[in-house]
Structure to design on (188 residues):
């Protein structure tokens, strides 16, 4: 009886979050209990030891983008999910990132996107970093070829993004505000 009870208890531990974990994640992620338990169950199925590795990320992205090469993009996105930079993504890190990208505020989403582009984590996004991430997105979709030229080339896309950023700021801000905001964005 004791053995059966402890067996059930250990099974419950690996397939469900406990009360304290649930309460903490409900308040930090705004996911409901059922949603969290579902995410947790799926996470533990892919990563029974509770640690998601870069290899698992590659596998998942490879399933979604079978025609592309997910490796460069996975390197960048894994870096954002792995917030304490210890080389693995725990469920807490995973669900926190999912919460920000699905229903976070615009501000939180921008900060998250900034971390994706700030590859060397120095607090700035350089044009080269932007180009590297855009190229990785092309590779993910299987659309990157050295022969791609003109408006569809990654460096041209980055130029268009920078122009759009300038225009969006021009329409809503004074020159001083614009410069200030631009500096903030580039610093994160
Ligand atoms: Ca980590
Ligand atoms: Ca940087």
């Amino acid at each position: 009886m004791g053995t059966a009870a402890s067996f059930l208890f250990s099974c419950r531990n690996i397939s469900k979050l406990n009360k304290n974990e649930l309460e903490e994640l409900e308040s930090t992620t705004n996911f409901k209990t059922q949603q969290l338990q579902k995410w947790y169950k799926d996470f533990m199925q892919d990563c029974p030891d509770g640690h998601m590795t870069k290899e698992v990320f590659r596998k998942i992205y490879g399933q979604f983008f079978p025609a592309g090469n997910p490796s460069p993009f996975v390197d960048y996105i894994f870096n954002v999910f792995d917030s304490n930079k210890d080389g693995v993504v725990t469920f807490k890190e995973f669900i926190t990132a999912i919460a920000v990208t699905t229903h976070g505020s615009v501000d939180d989403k921008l900060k998250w996107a900034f971390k994706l582009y700030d590859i060397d984590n120095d607090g700035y996004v350089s044009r080269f970093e932007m180009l590297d991430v855009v190229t990785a997105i092309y590779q993910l979709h299987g659309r990157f070829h050295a022969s791609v030229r003109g408006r569809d080339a990654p460096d041209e896309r980055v130029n268009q993004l920078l122009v759009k950023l300038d225009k969006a700021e021009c329409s809503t801000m004074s020159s001083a505000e614009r410069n200030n905001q631009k500096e903030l964005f580039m610093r994160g």
Residues 1-104 form a domain with the Recoverin; domain 1 fold (CATH 1.10.238.10). The pocket of calcium ion (ligand 2) is lined by residues 118-120, 122, 124-126, 129 (CB under 6 Å). Residues 154-172 form the longest helix (19 residues).
